[in-house]
Amino acid sequence: MEDGRTPEDRALVTAVLGGEPGAFERLVREYQGLCWHIVRRMVRDPEDARDLCQEAFLRVHQCLHQYRHDAPLRAWIGQVAYSVARRHLERKRIPIAEDAGDDDGAPLHERVADEFDLETAVADDDIARRLHAAIERLPPLQRTILTLYHLDELPLAQIARITGLAEGTLKSHLFRSRKRLQEWLAPGMGVAA
After folding, report:
1. Is-contact 157 163, C-beta < 8 A?
2. What's the CA gap between 25 and 4, in Å, rounded?
3. pTM for the whole thing?
4. CATH of domain 7-91
5. SS3 for 167?
6. What are the structural domain ranges in the chain?
């Protein structure tokens, strides 16, 4: 299906809800990478991230009966993982985003450009190491959005579903993240800031 909802997801959810042996384990195997990407980008400590991933899948198991197949299962599980990580940061009073500044008067979502290509940038090991270090310097929300969009290649609509943010807000975060990365990486990589 074009919107990401699949008959396989529907069958998997039905199997889990029906108590089919191994069904929940299949669900975890299918979506643990997504859950880890979201939680790990939000929460830097690997031990906390592991615990939060377990908590996210516990919530998925407890609340799967609430999934209505109105969005891809991937987005719904991502939303659960994001919510768990966000609550963890809020409890620790860690800000998840930087303030949205507007540099030239135009709305940020109108100034988003896709000329910064992450895949090309990671072609070289040294560049990849520097890029990932720079991504880690971003606030949790920007790290997560950037990773979901560029590395996991999720469409903005699914990221909006996961984070609860409007697509225009996501574009603003992507713009600011790319701009920040360009500023940080320009001196050593020849990237135009």
Report:
1. no
2. 21
3. 0.70
4. 1.10.1740.10
5. helix
6. 7-91, 108-187
Tokens of 191: 């990237």
Q: Hey, what are 31's tokens?
A: 């979506």
Report pLDDT digits (tens) over 87-99: 999 998 888 876 5
Residue 105 tokens read as 């008067």
pLDDT tens, residue by residue, 117-155: 555 545 556 667 787 888 888 999 999 999 899 888 889
Residue (of 135, 128, 137, 129) closest to 149 by Cα position: 135
Burial class of residue 60 in the structure, from the number of CB atoms within 10 Å of its CB (0-12 exposed, 13-18 middle, 19+ buried) = buried
- Give yes or no on whether 7-91 and 108-187 have one common fold: no
- CA–CA gap between residue 192 and residue 12 (Å, rounded): 46
Closest CA to 162 of 177, 150, 144, 175: 144
pLDDT 10s digits, 98-107:
654 444 444 4
The token pair at 93 is: 């009073």
Which of the four pLDDT bands, split at 50, 70 and 90, describes residue 165? very high
CATH class of 108-187: mainly alpha
User: Mean pLDDT score of the chain, rounded to an integer?
Assistant: 83
